[in-house]
Amino acid sequence: MFLGAGHSRAETRARLAAILTALFMVVEIACGIAYGSMALLADGVHMATHVGALGLAAGAYWLARRHAANTRFTFGSGKFGDLAAFTSAIVLGLTALAVAAESVMRLITPGDVRYGDALLIAIIGLGINLVTAVILKDSHHGHDHGSGHGHDNNMRAAYMHVLADAVTSVLAIVALAAGYYFGLAILDPISGLVGAAVIAVWSYGLIRDSAMVLLDAESDPEESREIRKTLEGELGARVADLHLWRLGPGHHGLIVSLISPGVTNAEDIKAVLRRRHPDLSHVTVEVAVCADCT
Q: 251 lies in which domain range?
């Protein structure tokens, strides 16, 4: 079982955040159609991407829990969250590109903006974002607690979608207020470009981190060095081969091949490693005895 600490709580919070965001999305789209406001309709459609991302996060938690005991998943189901995070990060990046493209078009061909309607909905949208962020915050920071490599990319992705929406809402409020009160229409597309840049940076970081987990890249070079130091400096064995990778939030797998000058008990080595590195949830040790090796 390589699920993160507080998995059930994170699943519940992600589901609640998705439902809350979906309800407001429906209201926005309905009001946009009823009142003929493109600003409301566009914001509602934009929010649909975040509903999808939050739903994806909740679904990943459910799938990971459902398949936790499925033996087909050789190293457990802990990476469902990283797969969802990778997908969600790509959606976040595409959203940034769409916002940037629309903002450039507005700079070239300014359109009519219903500042009053748009400002009101941006304020309400920010309120919804803040409530959703509070729902997700405890789980997000709870998974980050402890070792830097124990974070939950799935919850991080959900949290980033909410923060991205909050950032664009704040920028929109400033720009729309400037347009409404001072006639500074150019700030609206400029704020869109700034928001798109911020979202793109977050998206890149999340794609990079989740992809490294999915590709079984070495999860923590510093921990690898500490493990080598323990094995070679304290136990007197030479490390011939070592693989350290992430199995799920707060869980790592280790396969190590040792050359020892004398007979060594692999189980004792495992016990020492697990005592020093509690995040090692699956450890395989291979020992070759070579008394004549220097």
A: 221-289
